[in-house]
């Protein structure tokens, strides 16, 4: 087997999808600890506390150093090389959160057992569905009273339209939480608060009818488990590996991240089940990771690492071939060759092989604004990876310029930030406004602060009454003209000149769609 094939086989690149407070940070830390990445685990926490304290731009700025190191967390576990890509939540929830999911091969979904499926999880799930990303589910906080496990599975199936296949089953919950029963290995892991399960905490129990069960967890919990498992045998979906890989089914685990309970089992299942880097679509053909020729794409840009240098880091996912420091690649949008010298290779604790990287790995390319989201680099062949779109914004603001003479600088700044994916910029058909669109509201604060710091533009912003945007397509020019005439106050061009429809809410969109059935409204748009 070639080194390339071996390196691909041991890689797992994934992101965590969850609603704020479900336990993503806690779980991330425990996963990193299993991987021996102790320093990183500390960084995840400190970043979060800082962002919690204030949404102030300067605080964000101060955290930049840490936020780059936690953007991609790489660790070893068993024989695997794992890349965990951060999906920012809380105040720093933004389009980046969505876009990171276009660069992963699978996802872990964390659900709070007390709350079930929440809004942000639903949104992130939609993005996973676009690429049929396989998902493993971890139901967290079993040490607290929550919803019944069966009700939780129903909730997931209902709200997320994905089949659930429980691979473990909780024994009690809250104060009565005794542990989990591994439905495949048929063994019980007994729960002790704040302690990873040790071999002696695991009891193989082939026959649940055995009185041993009553001795281990008490008669009530034992009876309950017997009932549950009998019920599951009739009602639950058996785990189907292919269906998981096709993203039609999610295996479900139960545990308590804060107590490090059920996390090792989750991680073991993850490395065994989750897919290694797979083929990726381009406009012209599908690229297999095993191809020797280097290819990849940019999915995120982080600006202003060092204000003195206008430095930017492009986060680049390798799709095929091997990266070696200093190699030359084709930057197809610009039609020129660039050298990959000044590159951060995100790596594990061991500082070996830092000058090479493989499919599934992420490298950070330092640049001064020459790289856009979606840019593809290859070693020669002209290709453009697809599936790294812009996502429809949900929050809108009108830019108010304090000094009208700043208009040129404003234009330049907004265009650059739109290209970086920091914010979306719209020009209405009627009037001279600039409208900003974002997925998370902190994006506005950052845009305004950057306009001032980097482009010398003093501007404010005011809220607008829009709640959604859709990109518009229509094959019939006559219908389109009529549509534009009737909806001119709701139409705008985005930074790449694409027609967009802005509406107050879903009801308005539905109404317009009824009036213009031949107009197509799109929630995502591929970059040019
Ligand atoms: P995030 O917002 O999804 O990153 O969530 P955090 O990891 O910060 O967790 C949110 C809160 O839930 C914190 O106060 C955690 O200590 C707490 N938490 C996380 N996991 C558990 C758990 O297994 N049990 C309990 N009781 N609390 C937990």
Task: Produce the secondary structure layout.
Layout lengths: L2 H7 L1 E8 L5 H11 L3 H16 L3 H6 L1 H6 L2 E6 L2 E6 L9 H6 L5 E7 L6 H12 L4 E6 L8 H12 L2 E4 L1 E4 L7 E4 L4 E4 L11 E3 L6 H7 L1 H17 L5 H5 L3 E6 L8 H11 L6 E2 L4 E2 L7 E9 L8 E9 L2 E2 L3 E4 L4 E4 L3 E3 L10 E2 L4 E6 L8 E3 L11 E2 L3 E7 L5 H14 L3 E5 L6 E4 L3 H14 L3 E5 L4 E6 L3 H10 L4 E4 L4 E5 L2 H10 L4 E3 L1 E2 L3
The structure holds guanosine-5'-diphosphate.
The site of guanosine-5'-diphosphate has 17 residues, from helix 2.
The secondary-structure class comes to: alpha+beta
CATH-level-4 superfamily name of the largest domain: P-loop containing nucleotide triphosphate hydrolases
Shape: globular
In this entry the ligands are:
guanosine-5'-diphosphate
CATH topology of the largest domain: Rossmann fold
DSSP summary: helix tally: 16
> Into which percentage range does the β-strand content fall?
25-35%
Distance between the termini: 38 Å
Based on DSSP secondary structure assignment, what is the total number of beta strands?
32
- How many domains make up the coordinates? 3
Mean pLDDT: 90
């Amino acid at each position: 087997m070639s080194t390339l094939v071996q390196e691909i086989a041991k890689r797992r690149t994934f992101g965590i999808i969850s609603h704020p407070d479900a336990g993503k940070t806690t779980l991330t830390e425990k996963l990193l600890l299993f991987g021996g990445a102790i320093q990183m685990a500390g960084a995840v926490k400190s970043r979060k506390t800082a962002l919690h304290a204030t949404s102030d731009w300067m605080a964000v700025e101060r955290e930049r150093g840490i936020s780059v190191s936690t953007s991609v967390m790489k660790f070893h576990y068993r024989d695997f090389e794992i890349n965990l890509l951060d999906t920012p939540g809380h105040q720093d929830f933004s389009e980046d959160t969505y876009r990171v999911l276009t660069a992963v091969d699978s996802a872990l979904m964390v659900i709070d057992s007390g709350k079930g499926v929440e809004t942000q999880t639903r949104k992130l799930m939609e993005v996973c569905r676009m690429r049929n990303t396989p998902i493993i589910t971890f139901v967290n906080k079993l040490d607290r009273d929550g919803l019944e496990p069966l009700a939780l599975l129903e909730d997931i199936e209902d709200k997320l339209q994905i089949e659930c296949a429980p691979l473990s089953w909780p024994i009690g919950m809250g104060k009565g939480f005794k542990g989990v029963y591994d439905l495949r290995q048929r063994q019980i892991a007994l729960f002790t608060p704040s302690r990873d399960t040790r071999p002696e905490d695991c009891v193989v129990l082939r026959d649940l009818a055995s009185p041993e069960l009553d001795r281990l967890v008490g008669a009530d919990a034992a009876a309950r488990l017997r009932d549950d498992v009998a019920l599951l045998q009739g009602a639950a979906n058996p785990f189907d590996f292919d269906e998981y890989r096709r993203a039609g089914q999610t295996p479900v685990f139960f545990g308590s991240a804060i107590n490090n309970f059920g996390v090792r089992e989750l991680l073991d299942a993850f490395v065994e089940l989750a897919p290694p880097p797979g083929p990726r679509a381009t406009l012209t053909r599908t690229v297999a990771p095993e191809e020797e020729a280097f290819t990849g794409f940019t999915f995120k840009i982080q600006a202003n690492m060092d204000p003195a240098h206008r430095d930017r880091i492009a986060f680049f996912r390798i799709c095929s071939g091997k990266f070696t420091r200093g190699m030359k690649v084709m930057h197809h949008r610009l039609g020129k060759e660039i050298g990959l010298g000044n590159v951060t290779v995100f790596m594990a604790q061991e500082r070996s092989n830092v000058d090479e990287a493989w499919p599934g790995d992420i490298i950070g390319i330092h640049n001064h604004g020459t790289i856009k989201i979606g840019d593809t680099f290859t070693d020669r062949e002209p290709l453009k990876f697809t599936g790294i779109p812009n996502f429809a914004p949900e929050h809108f603001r009108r830019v108010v310029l304090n000094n009208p003479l700043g208009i040129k600088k404003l234009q330049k700044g907004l265009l650059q930030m739109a290209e970086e994916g920091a914010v979306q910029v719209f020009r209405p058909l009627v009037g001279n406004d600039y409208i900003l669109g974002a997925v998370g509201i902190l994006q506005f604060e950052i845009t305004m602060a950057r306009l001032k710091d980097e482009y010398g533009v003093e501007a404010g912003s005011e809220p607008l009454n829009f709640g959604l945007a859709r990109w518009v397509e229509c094959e019939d020019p006559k219908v389109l003209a009529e549509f534009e005439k009737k909806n001119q106050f709701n139409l705008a061009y985005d930074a790449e000149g694409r027609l967009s429809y802005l509406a107050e809410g879903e009801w308005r969109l539905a109404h317009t769609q009824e009036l213009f059935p031949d107009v197509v409204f799109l929630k995502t748009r591929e970059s040019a």
